[in-house]
C-alpha cells in the first residue's frame, strides 16, 4: 500500500531511521498518525537536503519529522534548521 507517495516498507524504514522520533526536535512520533495533521505524534517525511536545493527522494535523504518542524523548516537543510532550533 502507498501513503502519500511512499510504500509501507519505505515509511517503516524512514520512521525507524530515528527510532520513531522527530530528527529535529526529538518529539515522539506515532506511526499510525503519518500525515494526520491534527493528531498527537503526527509526522511527515522530511528531506534532509530539500529538493529545491539539490536534494533527492533517495531514502538516505529522507527522515521522520513532526509536522511542526517539517513545515517550519522550509527550504533549510536539516543541519541549518538544527542551528535555528
Please tell me about this protein's structure.
- The protein has 85 residues and is an alpha+beta fold.
- Helices cover 27% and strands 16% of the residues.
- It is built from 3 helices and 4 strands; from the N terminus they run ββαββαα.
- A two-stranded antiparallel ribbon has the order 1-2.
- A hairpin with a 2-residue loop joins strand 1 and strand 2.
- The termini are far apart.
- The model has no long low-confidence stretch (mean pLDDT 93).
Which descriptors would you attach to this protein?
85 residues, alpha+beta, two-stranded antiparallel sheet, 4 strands, globular
Number of helices: 3
User: How is the main sheet built?
Assistant: 2 strands, antiparallel
**On the 0-100 scale, what is the average pLDDT?**
93
Strand content: 15-25%
Q: Give the strand line-up of the largest sheet.
A: 1-2
